Each structure stands twice: as structure tokens, then as C-alpha cells.
Amino acid sequence: MLNLGTKLKAWHGHKKYPVVVLVMFVVSVSVALVLLFNKYEENPIPVPGLPPDRKWNRFESLVQFNPKREFRNGTDLIWQIPDSPEAVLFLAHGCSCRAVNFWDKSPKCPECVGLPEDRLLVLHALARKFAVLTISSVGECWTFGKERLIVEDIITWWVKRQNLGKLPLVALGASSGGYFVSAIANDLKFSSITLMIAEGLFIARTSKRTIHLPFLCTCQKIHIGNKK
Ligand SMILES: *[C@@H]1O[C@H](CO)[C@@H](O)[C@H](O)[C@H]1NC(C)=O
């Protein structure tokens, strides 16, 4: 009996001990957390380095954004022409995107967004002396009826107005924009086109016409011929 009593006591003692340790641990962690958060609130830890707006723009760029914007035929065009341009680049966005995505927000273009990859395309093109023209699709994606004629008309008009008609005209389109670029390449005289993650659509409008067009493509599919 005595033996059993001692065993029972010892067993209870051992069981209680970890409970006390656990309670103390939880209490000290809570106290530490409360102290820590109070400290953060009273005295926020300073972020080392520059404020975010300067942090992401601190690398001196070879070129600066200085775009012009105009509305025509129910859409907006945004462009920039470097000093002594050597070629013209038309950029066609993908579905759900807009011309404003290619340009950094600035007092001249408060609606501009400057998406990371899109803005880099423009900066690299400007640095290589391309005059860059961006146009927004009217709907979410590009369409191939009236819109195709309107955009062809805008590009032709714009190139002429800027006196850039003697320079090579090239285009780059992503997704729906790539498909669109391949479609307008049947009418406009591009020196070359680039299609990113897109389907290519090359239709000879008349059976007599042959199109010689260098193109770079990360293509999903290419249609060649008179297929609609
Ligand atoms: C685009 O707008 C201009 C000027 O308003 C007009 O002359 C031209 O016909 C329009 N183009 C198309 C394809 O509607």
C-alpha cells in the first residue's frame, strides 16, 4: 500500500511539473509578444535605405519617360520619339491591358501605370533610338474587323505626321496583340515583327501578293493562307 501511495504521488508530481512549465512558457511568450508589438507601434523600426518611390527608381536610366498622349478614333495613343530616331516601333498589348501600362505614371500621364516588363520594353526601345507608339484596343482584346482598319489608319497617319515615313517600321505584340500585329502586317509594310506568346495570322489578301516578312515568334500556332 505504502509503495503504491509513493508511486502515485511521484506520478502526479511528474505530471504537474510539465503543466507548470507549459503555462510559464505561454505566459512569457505572450508577454514578449505584447512588449514587441508595443515597441513596434511606439517606435517603428526604420527601414534602411531609401523610401520606396526612390528605391525602385534609383538607377539612373539612359533615357527618361517623356511621352505624349492623344485621343483619336475612339482610342488613345501614347508615344515618345527619341532624338534622331532610327526606326519606329508599334507595341500592341495583350488582352485586358492598355497603352498606359507601357509608360510610367507622371504629371504628363497621371493615368499611366508602368508595368515592370512593359515599361522596360519602352525604355530599351528608346535607348536604341526607336520612336515608340502604343495604342489601346477598344475592347478587352483586339478585334479584326473595323478596329484593324482604324489602327492601320492611325499608325499610317501618325508616322506621316511625325515625319518618320522614311524609317523602318517594326512591331511587337503580346498575346492578342501578337495576333493583331500579324494581321495588320498583311497591310502595313513592317520591316519585321515580333510576336510573343501568340498565334500568328498571315493572310495574303489577294492571291497575287506575297509577303516577305522577317519575324520572331514565341508562337502557339501559325495560320498561313487565306484562312479566315
Ligand atoms: C479617324 O479619325 C480621323 C480624324 O477624326 C478621321 O479622318 C478618320 O477617317 C478616322 N479613321 C477611321 C478609320 O475611322
Mass-distribution shape: elongated
Tally the structural domains: 2
Q: Extract low-pLDDT stretches.
A: 1-13
The CATH architecture designation of the largest domain is: 3-Layer(aba) Sandwich
Class from helix and strand fractions: alpha/beta
Secondary-structure element order, as H and E?
HHEEEHEHEHEE
CATH topology tier name of the largest domain: Rossmann fold
Computed CA radius of gyration, to the nearest angstrom: 31 Å
Hetero groups bound?
A: 2-acetamido-2-deoxy-beta-D-glucopyranose
User: Strand order within the widest sheet?
Assistant: 1-2-4-3-5-6-7
User: Termini, distance in Å?
Assistant: 98 Å
Sheet with most strands: 7 strands, mixed
What portion of residues is helical? 25-40%
CATH class of the largest domain: Alpha Beta
CATH H-level superfamily of the largest domain? Alpha/Beta hydrolase fold, catalytic domain
DSSP strand tally: 7
Number of helices: 5
Name the average pLDDT.
Answer: 82
Strand content: 15-25%
Protein architecture, described:
InterPro entries: AB_hydrolase_fold. It is a single chain. With 228 residues, this protein is of the alpha/beta class. The chain is 36% helix and 22% strand. The longest helix has 41 residues. Bound molecules: 2-acetamido-2-deoxy-beta-D-glucopyranose (NAG).
